[in-house]
Amino acid sequence: MSMRADLQNIKESYERNVLRENVDRLEFLKGKYLPLFYSKLLHIWPEESSLPSDYNAFKDKTEQNAKFKNYNDFLNETIDNLISADPYSKVDMEKGAGYAGQYSEWILKTFLKMFDEKGEGAGKTIQDLRRFLNEDLSLLNGDLKIYDKNKTKVTLNQMNVRDINQIKDFKTLYYIVKKFVPKYEEEGIRDKSKVRTLLDNSQYFVGVPLSMYASQTLGNNTRWCTATRNNENNQYEYYSKQGPLYIVHLKTKPELTKFQFHFPSSQYMNSDNRPINVFDFFSQHPIVANVILDDYKKTDPKQENLRKAELVTGGLSVLEKEPDQFFQNVSVRNITVMVSEGQVDIEKLNRGLKLLSDSYENGAEYMGDGLKITFAKTERDEFLENLYGNDYSENILSQISKTAMNPLISLFDEDPEGNMVPYVLSPESGIFTPDQIRNIRRVYDDVGETPEESQEFYNICDKILSKHLRTIAPEYKKESIAYELQKHGVTFEKQKGKMSVVFSIDAVFSMYDDSDDTTFFNVLENPSYYVKLEELFPRLTENQIQAEKTDFDDFVSQKLNKKDVAREILQKIDKK
User: Fold this and answer.
1) Could you give the CA distance from residue 49 to residue 52 in angstroms, rounded to a whole number?
2) What average pLDDT score do residues 8-12 get?
3) What tens digit of pLDDT does each residue of 66-100 get?
4) Are residues 81 and 166 in the same domain?
């Protein structure tokens, strides 16, 4: 036998062994990662409540139970898709057979970080997962091919990265290989009818592609799934059916910089396909903002998608022309925040949105850098309290949260003598846990005729909670700020010789619901000033106004004795 034949036999034998190892590796990886995927992705599965938390209790019943089988098929399909993104893998998606390449385990581990309930995976949904599988896997496959070809040259923090396990996520992989990605020459659109041009001057181009080719041309050298040259994976048709894709070119940058906006899916991306801070972008480029939003209002006459996404240029809009629509949205079901020109300072709105998104993990849907958020299970006063933030102004804080009930303060209603309070606060009762106390941020209502009297009562209650928290959970002693109580919600103020009532935000909402008034209330326009009830609701009759004041007088008088009771409780705790 010739040496050439010997070498050929050796090569074929080696390839068979490698293939056998990779086939075994596919089964090994699926066996190893199925339990991990089961637990990590369970929280985003629509039928989570019908499935056991333990994988072993699940796996033996996948054939008998349709719900179990659906989730099992979903997990296997997800893992097969991910492994197939490895350039060295080959997976038959129907049979779940094939072999796994050298990058497959890194892909699986890195993906799990994205959809972990904690950390960077918090807030991810099943839609995010499917979007990743449908749109981003082909990009990942391309990045891995470039990495594999150039891994002796790629660097991370000026070090060679030959071991892919040193790369922490898919985004970092892209930034490492980005300089090796081939650039295509910018082309003009040959058929102008395939683009709806909204603006084209020395600074900006803004247009809507009307075909996949136009989308590819306008999005040339970006990472957008709507611009990929792989026609099979291009998602232009999918997104354009939902609503227009707005593509923006900034011509004044050293390199042509591109952005894409899609309101129906709430996706606003830079050229690397990363979410951008939309408020900042529109604030910096108001001409672009106005052009896009004016066009979108014509495209979506009912503004159904605009109501979901709300971007406009300036501050908080409470749907000034249709306040009833706002109050339907501001409910325990959801809150849709919309932004329009000049109602609230944009920086303070941003700060409030981020505060609120931190408070409501399960009800927050992040757009861009947490800038468009749809909230679930949120009370009206909680929303506005977080919107303005603790550092907004003393006056607005004093107007917020008349109705948010603190369990401790509510005890005074049920037990005027205060006999039950020491027991309720005792560790044996278990009623007030450390976390409950730590999260208390507001109090019940005003208990005095003046802000000073009310604040004195709240200070006493704050001390009660502080001392109790340190007793049952010493580790919280440094977190006193976490349970600082909010100030009173309603005060009386003399203005121009006439009594003027400062209602809490919730009281304003309630009054607005009860009236037919369609005038946008001034509290949000200028929240640091007291607003007369008569000015807020000009259609209210004098009798209605007087009834509100009388109710408030009665309310305050019922609370006046509580300060002394609270002081006695504090003394009892001090003695212990």
Assistant:
1) 8
2) 53
3) 777 888 888 888 888 898 889 888 887 666 667 88
4) yes
Residue 199, phi then psi, degrees to nearest 5: -160, 135
Sequential DSSP letters for 46-87: TTGGGS-SSHHHHHTTTTT-HHHHHHHHHHHHHHHHHHHTST
Among the three residues 289, 308, 327, which one is the final residue of a domain in this structure? 308
d(CA 82, CA 135): 12
Triad 339, 341, 347: Cα angle to 5°: 65
Whether the Cβ atoms of residue 370 and residue 354 lie closer than 8 Å to each other: yes
The answer on 175 and 206 residing in a single domain is no
Residue 351 belongs to some domain of the structure: yes
Per the document, the length of the chain is: 576
Task: Establish if 187 belongs to a structural domain.
Answer: no
Question: Terminus-to-terminus CA distance in the chain, angstroms?
Answer: 98
Averaged pLDDT of the chain: 60
For residues 337 and 323, state if they share a domain. yes
Q: Is residue 158 very low, low, confident or very high in pLDDT (cuts 50, 70, 90)? A: low
The answer to whether the CB of 526 falls within 8 A of the CB of 544 is: no
Is the domain of 439 the same as that of 498? yes
How many structural domains are present in the chain?
4
CA distance 440 to 462: 10
**Which has the minimum average pLDDT: 44-53, 90-99, 227-236, 438-447?**
438-447
Residue 337 sits in which domain range? Answer: 314-392
In terms of pLDDT, which residue wins out, 553 or 175?
175
Phi and psi at residue 267, to the nearest 5°? -115, 125
pTM given for the model: 0.48
Residue 573 pLDDT class (50, 70, 90 cuts) = low
Q: What burial letters (b/e) apply to 430-462, b meaning 16+ CB within 10 Å?
A: eebebeebbebbbbbbbbbeebebbbbbbebbb
- My answer on whether 435 and 563 are in the same domain is yes
